[in-house]
Amino acid sequence: MFRFIAADLRRQWIGVLAVTLIIALAVALGVVVTLQERALRLGSARAAQAFDLVVGAPGSETQLVLSAIFLQPAPLPLMGGEVLAGLIADPRVAWAAPVGFGDFVDDYPIVGTTQPLIDGLTKLTEGRSFARLDEAVVGAAVPKALGAAFHPMHGQVGGPAEVHGRITYRVVGRLAPTGTPWDRAVLVPIEAVWRVHGAEAATGHHDHDAPETGRPRSLSDAHQAHRDMAPDLDDAINPDAVAAPGAPGLPAIVVKPKTIADAYKLRRDYRSDHSLAVFPGEVLTRLYATLGDARQVIALVAIGAQALVGAAILLVVVIHVLQRRKQIGALRAFGAPRIAVFGIVWLEVLALLATGLVAGFAIGYAAARLISRTLEQASGIALPVAFLPGDGTALALLFAVGGLVALIPALLAYRQSPAQALRG
Fold this sequence. Notes:
424 residues; alpha+beta
């Protein structure tokens, strides 16, 4: 029987290949949706693990997390420098570090911060940490060697940009890979960012032409006001500068509380009219819910497509069985029992279905890996694409449903009598 089935499939290999490919593509669509949504959730969650609490100026919680954790460029409002000083002095805080941004080198964001963030993020694999204002530490994915010098650029390649030609940083260290956007970051002392963009504008002091919004101006406004200045970065880092009275404003601060209880107390205390404190995990959970809704819609579309493909394939198979009435009648005339004819048709359809399902899972996995690799290069977030035990259950369920559907053409063949088939 099995040799007969194999010979029959080989004889009709063009149709077999077409049906198998249609099944595979329909299944691959659902697999891609599932794997990619899962990879985004796992990758973003891992990227936020190193940051327990983020503090910024009142505004969008989502944008604060996207900018401070995932380094997505956005003109965040600035909060007063006294917030950082208060957090550093707070006994409930293990460490607190500023996050200041606004410039790039090529397509890599330059982030102003302090040593505690580097220590809390990962370790150095090359060189040392910055000790002077004109020194930089690069992430694992930044293609700059130790000793390389570069000029910061306000804006990104491909868009409006302006190079700070009179400002030069030198790479002195490289961070270990983290699988987060910080692998694509260039870290410099926050004091250097303040000097480059002008301390007066960063503190939120208004000039006569500034709009009376009651908020500090963004770093992009500061750059516009001070772009012709050439600040002196030939100084050693002053660790006390970030907590000094009258320190410039900041777009974000990442905080490591000493305990979970301290984390909740800090979030409560720093949610006020002057600052906003958020848990990145909570913000991501809301984003996951939004992604989940979108995934459900796409999954329903994929299921609908699979149902339509299944119905079309069933119709093709039924027509194929009806066209083979004489062949089936000949088998019955030569003594083949009904159950053998039933088994031949059922197993042929099942073989097409099984091949299509396995190929669909393979194509979906390959497509998800390709999409994740593209997104990783753009965002720096490691997006793990992997099957879970539940995916095997879904494959078995699809196979079982397909096996039941395959009974329809098999029953049509079973019910044919040899006399009727040969007369047709």
